[in-house]
Amino acid sequence: VCVMAHVTARKMPTIHRHEEEKFFVNADGGKESVPSIHDPPTKELSVVVPSYNEEDRLPLMMDEALDYLEKRQKRDPSFTYEVIVVDDGSKDHTKKVAMKYCKKYGSDKVRVLSLVKNRGKGGAVRMGVFSSRGKKILMADADGATKFADIEKVEEGLKNLRPWPNQMAISCGSRAHLEKDSIAKRSYFRTLLMYGFHFLVWFLCVREIRDTQCGFKLLTREAAARTFSTLHIERW
């Protein structure tokens, strides 16, 4: 494995953006150029939602997220946000569903970035991150597996990491404390597969993180730029 990794690895990954992916459609149907992660931030928070064939589950997640964000902005007018839905080459009406929120809340708050073809979750998140304007960037899954209000917990985690070296820090959500409940609802076979997967992740990858699959992660802008600029694999 080490020899294959050494032979096939490139010094830096190739980051390709199709011409159609350099623009997003605003609430009026016009095209606007996407910003860059290397530009100065103009929002407090960017929420990147990778979405592939999520027309059924996306509305629940978006309703919950935008309800929370709007209430928070009313409490604190200095708080600004944007939600970037990355349509990862969906074959259903994911883009159409997302555009309804763009028209309702305005393209300054909700943006839909359509990818020409399916890149995979890693590639979709990266394209959303590269098009974000926030000082902090949150990854959030379209299935709404994590309550959006729990962002306050990862924000607290990020705060507790100070001082941030070179302004870089990442706070990861975890559902490991819910594992016992999930086992009760799973079949023995699925539970066996879960433990097998956890062992492989522990043995081959990371040993200090109990839940690597939670798609709820908060990054500083600097950490996001560094992390996703060096991403070698798009699929995961």
TrEMBL record:
Annotated Gene Ontology cellular component terms: endoplasmic reticulum membrane
Domain Glycosyltransferase 2-like: 46-224
Keywords assigned: Endoplasmic reticulum, Glycosyltransferase, Membrane, Signal-anchor, Transferase, Transmembrane, Transmembrane helix
Known EC number: 2.4.1.117
Compartments in which it is found: Endoplasmic reticulum membrane
Broadest EC class assigned to this enzyme: transferase
Similarity comment text for this entry: Belongs to the glycosyltransferase 2 family.
Protein known as: Dolichyl-phosphate beta-glucosyltransferase
Species for this entry: Atlantisia rogersi (Inaccessible Island rail)
Gene (UniProt): Alg5
